[in-house]
Amino acid sequence: MTTSPRTQVRELRVVLTVPGFDQAVRFYRDALGLRVEEAWDRPEGRGMLLTAGRATLELIDETQAETVDLIEVGPGTSGPVRLSFEVPDSGAMARELAGAGGELVREPVETPWGHRNARVRAPDGMQLTLFTPLGSA
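Above: the chain's sequence. Below: its structure in token form.
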């Protein structure tokens, strides 16, 4: 395979613009446990870069999105963007995030693809899938 500029991506960043920055920091950093890589507080704005381990970009069509939503939360939709985190215990993490200002959308369910998934809505409205591969919890 030839290396070209299209194959030299080294990092994926998902950038969330949140109305409640401090609340988002408490939720994602403190409750979810993402590690701070960099933080800034300048007159032109505040920001924080949080590390979540290995990043992947999952592309799914609308039919697959509906299928995932139906399995994880029932009828409805998570919208065009949903964050998904592999965690050691999806149920425990979902309860932790609910106690930190998130909303538990659904308790963990076993999926056809071999995960135990829970869904949480962050204070900023973003839906998160918390997944634990079966046999690892």
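The domain at 11-133 is CATH 3.10.180.10 (2,3-Dihydroxybiphenyl 1,2-Dioxygenase; domain 1).
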